[in-house]
Design goal:
With about 600 residues, this protein is an alpha/beta fold. The chain has 3 domains: about 180 residues, Thiamin diphosphate (ThDP)-binding fold, Pyr/PP domains (Rossmann fold, 3-Layer(aba) Sandwich); about 170 residues, TPP-binding domain (Rossmann fold), CATH 3.40.50.1220; about 180 residues, Rossmann fold, CATH 3.40.50.970. Helix content is about 40%, strand content about 15%. The chain has 27 helices and 18 strands. A 6-stranded parallel sheet has the order 2-1-3-4-6-5. Strands 9-8-7-10-11-12 form a 6-stranded parallel sheet, with helices on both faces. Helix 9 crosses helix 15, helix 12 runs antiparallel to helix 16 and helix 17 packs across helix 24. The longest helix has 17 residues. The N and C termini lie far apart (about 60 Å).
Amino acid sequence: MQVRDYILNYLVSQGVKHVFLVTGGAIAFIVDAFSKRKDIRYVCVAHEQAGAMMADAYSRMGPGYAATMVTSGPGATNLITGICCSWFDSIPTIHISGQVNTYEQKKKSKVRQVGFQETDIVNIVRPITKFAAQLDSTDNIRFLLEKATYLAKSGRPGPVLVDIPMNFQRAEIEPKKLKKFVPPSKKEYEDTGTKLMEKVTKTVEYFKKSKRPVLLVGGGVMLANAQKEIRELIEELGFPVVSSWSGYDTVHRGHRLYLGAQGVYGERAANFAVQNSDMLIAIGSRLDTRQTGGKPQTYARESKVIMVDIDKAELDKRRGLTPALTIQTDAKEFITTLLKNLKKFKKPNISPWIKLCREWKKKYPVVLPEYSRDKKFVNPYVFIKTLSKLLGSKAVIVPDDGGHLTWTMQAFEIKKGQRLFSAYGNSPMGYAFPASIGASIALGKKEVICIDGDGSFQMNIQEIQTMVYQKLPVKVFIINNYGYGIIKQFQELYLGSRYEATGKGYSAPDFIKVGKAYGVKTVLIKHNTELSKKIKEVLRHKGPVICDVRIYPLQKLIPKLEFGKPIEDLSPVLPRDEFRKNMLVKTMEEIQVNPKKINEIN
């Protein structure tokens, strides 16, 4: 058997059915091996970056995962942005790069390059992968692949890369004699067994004393396949629930205890609940600055924060926020252990707290009635809310980066059974469209809703051809504000409304003409009154659609946090009397923004 055939056999054994690739000289031998296969197929993409994003989204759909294959040099380096998406969001993906022959490599030489397109991709991607290595002997191919795929899914998941020199690809091997990889017996997280039980018992003790508890659901819950368990926990606890963006599709919008996503672009009700809590249990959330705000010492400042995460480094970081208890374990393992302990637990009476949280939710909706009265443009909040009402319970929604991501996360009313995700950590422009293609292929060419922007869609616009060739029913909604809207708002706040490189100097094509050039059905929406009719037209069509949704060029993100403020004080700011009535803890004006004093409160 040749190495190239062994690689495909191994990928199939791991459940890989699709490989996203752009061929090239250094990978051509492996690609040629597909000619003998029916159990694994490749998908040709127009750009390697898009291929990595497709693989990322494919893997999010689960339970299997996808791979990419690229040539050496520029083919491999083009993967980097997509690899970063998987790295920051903990998504297992496999990347196979071709490399120049071993006898053409510079090795330790100080020259920059020997072989054509030789690039040390392994050392370039090491900081953004769980494992990256070059095959140094054909006898090690089994060991390398087994180690890579084990690490991709163990502990905190992530991407891996294996670099295969050309002269090894067609080399003959004897599979039975190949060296095996033996996984370590010890788990990658510390808190298991008795140690976990002790910390869970301590958590329950905090519950008993709490009058204003909040449960924060993060993306780690979905990664641990603990959706069923977290829903059971929510019912058992009876606490108000908030989510991070990556945990947004874990709890449906209509749940009586759910207050929305919290953070810099969070909902007022969710932020007020977190900031007024006396106990916050964060499961599978790393509590990054998009959640805590730029001054983490102001976050949940009078609360006992219990942080559950599989990554010790996330628990050990100190940026001004010091948890009362850290638990390093898998989210599912923690939740199941906690549920067992709660059977003996007498719930405290927190009905006044739940009532207050519900009042906040009712009083501070994101989508206001006046938004529908705009007669010149489509209001993005009204568009997102209308779209969410028209989508079924099995819909998959992929928003991109920027303003349209924020409008989606603030206004989309997630239903039970729906999936909604983006590349939240890396958040690159250009993710949503190729990700929608990858998700559709993972689901057997089912419909996927892509929510894009006029700027971000252009980043991977070439993949329209991939969508057309693969006959994918991807519905692309381009929220078109004729520029980079989220940066325009930043320029208004801090740069004297000088729209350098966002409105001035920026341009976009006529997306209707672009779609027609590829033979794709197109729809234009210019007014709020057209929304329901035109969205239904898009959704009725069996094939791909590009829909251009025209909004006001200076449309704001409302609410949002201004720099330096705590997350309870979103802009547009509330009247000070009203704001203070909503605060059960000391406001930052009362504390006078003294980090030392804040830390003493914790």
